[in-house]
Amino acid sequence: MTATAIAPAGRTMIVPASERRLKNHTGLAQTVQNTLTMAYRGLVKIRRTPEQLVDVTLQPIIFTLMFTYIFGGAISGDVASYLPVIIPGILVQTVITTSVVTGTQLREDMDKGVFDRFRSLPIARIAPLSGALLADTVRYAIATVLTFTMGFLMGLRPDGGLAGVVAAGLLVIACSWAISWIFAFFGVIARSASSVQGISMLVLFPLTFLSNAFVPVETMPGWLQWFVNINPVSHLVTAVRDLVNNGVFGVDAWVSLLGAAVIVAIFAPLTVRAYMRKA
Predict the structure, then answer these.
(1) Is residue 24 part of a domain?
(2) Which of 42, 137, 204, 224 has its CA at 20 to 30 Å from residue 100's CA atom?
(3) How many domains does the chain have?
């Protein structure tokens, strides 16, 4: 059979079987091409509405200045000594928090009917989802560059060199991309964008602030230290510090990559399955 009759709104329409197969079973090459196209769409949205970048542009600057000058003297004696501690912490906290946007914007597009339009196009069904995830890596890169730039302007001189800084940035971007799958899943199953943001922040704030991102673990109460030591954010912060300050890709970096791989292995299939049911 080469065609199928369907009847929307009381009328009969003939849809070629080849077109149905194209929508449901696209090849790898077309899927990649459609994903890149949807990622470009995300970048165009950012260019036309630059206020979407407020979180990744202002947050690194404000947080770096605020935390450095408030806690620098109390924790490390002076600002210069505190910068190697706080810049990796600010970087991880900022970029991970930015990954929430993936879920909220995904939910907004679905609520506005944008994905209904995509459903009618002869493109890979997964492309709008994968394209959004890919486009958001640009946001992570912007936050990473701005955070390190602020650190350099304030006097940070990383002993790990340029290679250590680049490796640390790539590690944070990769882990944040993995975490964005969690919030993409929330975006698909949630009822509103505000609920996605509320749930995400409820999860992220304890993880980022109850970590070693801003203060040494040994200064915390004993009952809190056990949680901070097993907190995955603490492992990522320590990995970034090792790379930036010493140029060492240590155990914490491997733990962070393993955690990212586990998150993707669990939430990518869940997100894709939930998305396909609605797409």
Answers:
(1) no
(2) 224
(3) 1
Given this model, what pLDDT does residue 52 score? 66
Contacting residues for 164 by C-beta, under 8 A, at least 6 apart: 158, 243, 244, 245, 246, 247, 248
Three-state secondary structure readout of 223-236: HHHHHHHHCHHHHH
Predicted model pTM:
0.82
Q: For 120, left (φ over 0), alpha (ψ -120 to 50), or beta?
A: alpha
> Model confidence over 149-207: pLDDT tens digits?
999 999 899 998 999 999 999 999 999 999 989 988 888 888 888 888 888 888 888 88
CA distances to 204, 209, 210, 213, 262 from 234, rounded to whole Å, are 13, 10, 9, 7, 17
The distance of Cα 179 from the centroid of its chain, to the nearest Å, equals 6
Rounded Cα distance between 134 and 35, Å, is 8
CA gap 80, 88 in Å, rounded: 14
CA atoms within 13 A on the CB side of 76: 18
Handedness of CA 246, 249, 255, 258 (dihedral sign): positive
